[in-house]
Amino acid sequence: MTPEQLAGFRKLFPVTQRYVYLNHASNGSLALPVVAAMNGYIERCSRHGEVPYPEAEAVVEDGREMAARLMGVRSDEIAFVKNTSAGAIIAIGSIEWQHGDNMIVMRDAFPTNTYPFDYLLPQVEKRYVTSVELAKGPECVFKLIDRHTRAMAIDWVHFLSGVRADIIAIAAHCRTRAIHILVDAMQGLGAVNQGFGELGIDFVYAGGGKWLLGPQGSGILYVNSAILPKLRPANLGWLSAKWDDFNDIYTRKPMKPGASRFEEGTKNYIGIYGLRESLRILLDVGMSEVAARVRMLTQLLRQRLEQKGFEVMTPVDPQRHAGIITASRPDVDMAALFARLKEQSFICSLRENRLRIAPHFYNTEEEIERFCAALPAKDEPGV
Ligand SMILES: Cc1ncc(COP(=O)(O)O)c(C=O)c1O
Fold this sequence. Notes:
Layout: H1 3-11, H2 15-18, E1 20-21, H3 32-48, H4 53-71, E2 78-81, H5 84-94, E3 102-106, H6 115-120, E4 125-129, H7 131-136, H8 139-142, E5 149-155, H9 167-174, E6 180-184, E7 203-207, E8 219-223, H10 269-285, H11 287-307, E9 311-312, E10 325-328, H12 334-343, E11 346-347, E12 349-351, E13 354-357, H13 365-373
Parallel strand pairs: 1-11, 3-4, 3-5, 5-6, 6-7
Antiparallel strand pairs: 2-8, 7-8, 9-10, 10-13, 12-13
Helix pairs in contact: 3-10, 4-10, 10-11, 11-13
């Protein structure tokens, strides 16, 4: 991308005017076209009363197409959902569990990828891996598998350490074993260029409000078309069916053939209008370019943090991390440092007493340099 092109994309993000915004692991910032699309829809509804259904449905289908392109899958494998959790809940509710089944989960996963399994599947034995083990390779998963393993749920990118699990190797290993693979892609989708089509993963779910740069309350669920016919949709509703019109309400309609059957009722049109625009931006930049910029910025960040004596817990290998860099220094009051950075308009997160720093493609090297210049020098104790 040329500097002019980058400057053009940066202009779409008003947050860049006031902040050095490095907090995409918490919230993506909303670009102007995202805001305009949502506002336009809301204003139109308010002026005309009726929802513009034909237009709104066309936007949904266009957005579905874009989500599919971003993930390298078919558009009939994409459902819009309200958040990451909905994806996990739909996945486990749609699998036919059997007596004696076990599933592999991450002990330190973000709770999206533990609570539904613990509370909705108490009868299923859980076998645990950690992100630290996954950082070393996928063998920790393989050794837990036996013939009763029905599923595994992995955070693609860990919310704290930033460890990116080797889901490609995991999927390859499990492909012949009929184990359902569920991937929480919230911290990876939109930051990493990954095609999911050929991997053999069954479910991928991600909210739209972080790296996808969309609004909160929007999200994407990918369901592999190869397993779709074997699932019993957990959330089957009236809009899981194919309606030509709503004149004849009582004749039973057939279920939609694709993953849109998981869109059980009225959609979050506002969210999808916005998400479609943020997907468009990512596709316009190109996911390989987005990922390359995220990689370059995180590498620079790591280098500067280490020069300042910070311990970086995120793996060095670019294949084993995405856009999150998490770091701390034992001699520094991290909460005080975080507060001071915020006062100076440097926005990141404080997690488990560490700074979690998460740049996106539209951040610049100069912003990383300024952020790191605001950190205490190597031998400067405290804050
Ligand atoms: C890995 C991961 N998954 C999911 C979520 C959020 O889940 P949901 O979209 O259901 O709120 C987060 C953070 O908010 C996360 O870091």
